Amino acid sequence: MRSGLRLMLADRVLRRDQLIWSLYSVLGGSIVLGLVYVGTKGGRDDAVLATLAVATYAAGSAVGTLLAGRFENALNLWPLPLR
Length: 83
Prior knowledge:
Layout: H1 2-10, H2 12-39, H3 48-70
C-alpha cells in the first residue's frame, strides 16, 4: 500500500486522475442523496424515485467506466491546464 501511495504522489497523471475521480464521487453522491431526499419528500413518500435515482447513477458509473476502458487511445478532451 505504501508503494502504491508513493507512486500516486510521484506521478502527476495519477494524482490528476485521483482528484477527478474523487470530485466525481463527491458530486455524484451528493446529487444522488439530494434526489433521494427530494424524491421521497424528506422520507415521507414511497422510495420508487429514489430507487431509480440510485440505479441510474450506478448504471451510468458502470457504463462510463467500461467505455473509458474501451477508448484509452481516444483524444483527451480535458483542458490543457489540467494536464
